[in-house]
Every structure is written in structure tokens, then in C-alpha cells.
Amino acid sequence: MPLIELYGRDGLRNLLSESARSGRLPGSILLQGPHGVGKQRLALWLGQLLLCTSEDKPCGKCKSCEYALNLTHPDLHWYFPRPRLKDPDPSLSDVVSDYQEAIAERLANGGLYAAPPGNEAIYVATVRALVQQASLSPAIGTKKVFVIGDAEQMAPREGNEESANAFLKLLEEPSAKTTLIMTSSEPGALLPTIRSRAVSIRVPPLDEAGMRAFLADPRVARALDDAGVPKSTAERVALAAGAPGRLFGDESRGRSIIAARKLIDAALAPNTSVRHAATLAIGGSGARGSFTDTLDAMLVLIGERIRSALHDSNDARALSATRAADAIGRARERASGNVNPQLITAQLLDELAASLS
Ligand SMILES: [Zn+2]
């Protein structure tokens, strides 16, 4: 199964392909933009373009494009944060086979994946492998492309100056045959020595037309249904807020939305016993993380309510939803302190009932 198509981004794609065609594309690029906006997918598209052997790049039809879309192109390398390998000094082939597995996992889902957990990183063995691969000639084409996702998670200094310096040298002067494309949603967290060596390109949120095209892809729709994300396209557009990857944020995402919807329904129920039951279902002080996720999801749903009220010029409804959003915001603040989630929920549902009904 190939990668899911890259949707939208016509302006940026034209700019990049024009730069590549005229030979002005920098050798080291940093794609920066919000989390989940599709920076790595865009980087892989650019890799496909650079490796394509047809006139009209990327043609999507040549062998090279086929390999790139199936992530089997030997000259298209993709690195991103991974758990640390058990062997403290893994060989190049250990690193390569770990990434083959990780990439196969991402590809099994068409290239839709949740953000890696914070304890994963691009460790020094990976940086060493990358530098080593960059020193080799291209395997089948005339170029090599390295995509380095979540580059701020790179830990090249980690007790190994040699790899760090080799990587910086590579970034500074990649050979004419090599293109490095880093991506980051937190460019401020990148080592300044890395940031200063790459040309930054901003990847803005995906526009609504692009988002709708993405959501209409049957493989995307199926993955979202499986993840329990609300079915309506309008809601999906609102939840993603220009960052399709956010919909695949994590496995609990769908659960948070369902829990959020239940709480809002409970607040709207005429019978207070429904509110009590919903409060009890929240559980005590445990699972604080999932409670704050639920509150975040409530904010998203209420935000959608505000937007639709404004769209219908229903000022009263917009105002009451705005009050509800304020109440959720206060609850969110208390939840990050040491307050019992049930207490917060009980008060929040009373406030929501007062503002929304
Ligand atoms: Zn091609």
C-alpha cells in the first residue's frame, strides 16, 4: 500500500518544484509549521520529486516515483524519533533495520501516524548512520534525499562530538547529490548550530479545500472511523484546524471526543441526575491526563458551536457558547492543579447548564 496522496499545498508545491527545476533548491531545508500539519508528508513528496526520472516531476508513474511512494526507494531515507535501541553501541545495520520496521509500521497505515512519544529521539547512532549513508553514492539514481522528521528531537551531542560535527558539516555543505529536509514544529528547540545551517520554509495550516480533499480519501476516512473520530466532515475539519495529523494525534483522541460529547450532552439534559451520573463516571484523581484531554476536546466542540452560531448570525447562541468556553477554560486551569476531577466536573456541568440552556 503506497503512501496516502499529498493533498492541497499547491502554492508551496509550485514554489518547491520551480526551485528544484531551476537548481535553486537549497541543499539543507527546514520545513517548519504546526504539529500535524503534514511537514513530513510534504518532505517525502519533495524527495519523490527530486528522485523522479520523468520530465514532469513528480510524475507518480516512473519506477523511482513508485519506490518513493512505497518508501522502498534506496536513495530516499526517512528518519524520525525512535525509542533507544537496547544495544548501547548499535551498528549501522541495527539502526537501518529498526527504521525499516518503523517505516513499515507507518506505511501500513498509509503514512498516517500519531506523534512519537516524548521519550523517543533521533539518537546519536541514527545520526551516525545518516552521515555514513550520506557519504555513499546514490544506489539507483543520481541523488540522495534525507528526510529528518521532528528534528528538534535530535540528540547528536549526546557524548559524541564526532558524529555531531560530521552532521553539522553535512548540513553546511551537502554534496550536490544530497538534499537534507528537516521538519520541526518547535524550531526554537533546535540546536542553533543546526537551525542556522538550513533554509527555513514555513508550512502553514492546510486550507479547507485541501483538508476536505484529504478527508474524502477513502483510506483516510476508514482510519478516522476506526479511531472513533466524529463522522461529520464539518466536525473533522474543525477538529483538525488545518493540521490533518492532529486527527491521528493519539489513540485516546477518539475516546476524549466521545467523553467530551457525553459531558456536554449531560450539561444540556433537563434532568440533574444525568449530570450527577456523568460526574461520577469521570472517576477520581486518577487518569488526570485523560481528563485534561477531555476538557481540550470539549473546547474544540464548543468552538465549533460558536463558529456555527456566528455563521448563522445567532448572537445569543454565540454568546452563550462563548461563556461555556470560558467555563471550560477555567476548569482546564484547575485541572492542571491538584483539584479532584469530579469536583471540577460537577461545577463545570452546572456552569455549562446555566450558560448553554
Ligand atoms: Zn516519477
Which class do the helix and strand fractions yield? Answer: alpha/beta
Number of helical segments?
Answer: 15
Radius of gyration: 23 Å
Helix content: 40-55%
- Count the beta strands: 5
Instruction: Report how far the terminal alpha carbons are from each other.
Output: 48 Å
Distinct bound molecules:
zinc ion
Characterize the quaternary organization of these chains.
single chain
Q: Summarize the main sheet.
A: 5 strands, parallel
Q: Unreliable runs, pLDDT <50, ≥5 residues?
A: none
Order of helices and strands: HEHHEHHEHEHEHHHHHHHH
Overall average residue pLDDT? 89
SS strand fraction? 5-15%
Strand order of the largest sheet: 2-3-4-1-5
* Overall spatial form: elongated
Offer a quick outline of the entry.
The chain has 357 residues and is of the alpha/beta class. It contains 15 helices and five strands.
Could you please describe the fold and organization of this structure?
This protein has 357 residues and is an alpha/beta fold. 54% of the residues lie in helices and 7% in strands. It has helices at 10-21, 39-51, 63-69, 92-108, 124-134, 161-172, 192-195, 208-216, 218-226, 233-240, 252-268, 272-281, 288-311, 315-336, 341-356; strands at 28-32, 76-79, 144-148, 178-184, 199-202. Strands 2-3-4-1-5 form a 5-stranded parallel sheet, with helices on both faces. α6 links the parallel β3 (144-148) and β4. The longest helix is centred in the last third of the chain and has 24 residues, at 288-311. The chain starts with 9 loop residues before the first helix and ends with a helix. 37% of the residues are buried. The protein binds zinc ion (ZN). Residues 52-54, 58-59, 61-62, 64-65 line the site of zinc ion (ZN).
